[in-house]
Amino acid sequence: MIEFTIPIEPRAQKRDRIGTIGGHARSYKDKAQSLYEGKVAALVAQHRPEKPLEGQLTLYIDCYMPLPVSKSKKWKELAIREEIYPTGKPDCTNLAKNIEDIMNGVFYRDDAQIVYLLVRKLYSDNPRWVIVLNEVGECSK
């Protein structure tokens, strides 16, 4: 089991941008997306296994989102106690895709090996990612 925390605010993966060069369309990553992925990849790399995992994998991702400044103290207390969850953007699938792609080729050969994925969005006054990667058959989270 590999478990670690990335102390950076979770963000969703942005869609590639499309541009033309010489009349030919090409896609490219947004500069802010590339910078964010680089920061997260550097933090994630500290926890990588000696060689990418093989076989079937389970991936648990807890995305601790920042508390909205505009909300009341009572609302924030309920959110921290996990009685209120983030229901706005970004969505869970785009958050997961960001982490899956960053870990791809480093933690596992291919993200197609992930057979079970659980993503949760939670509020916290300490925004962060918490990642748990297991081989199927190991203790689950």
| Number of alpha- plus pi-helical segments | 3
CATH architecture: 2-Layer Sandwich
Unreliable stretches covering 5 or more consecutive residues = none
β-strand percent reads 25-35%
> Considering the protein shown, what is the CATH homologous superfamily?
Holliday junction resolvase RusA
Number of strands: 6
CATH topology value: 60s Ribosomal Protein L30, Chain: A
Question: Globular, elongated, flat, extended or rod-shaped: what is the shape?
Answer: globular
Main-sheet strand order equals 1-6-4-5
* Helical percentage: 10-25%
Largest sheet: 4 strands, mixed
SSE string, helices as H and strands as E: EEEHEHHEE
Rg measurement, Å: 17 Å
Mean pLDDT: 89
Distance between the termini: 9 Å
Our count of domains comes out at: 1
Structural class computed from helices and strand pairing: alpha+beta
CATH class type: Alpha Beta
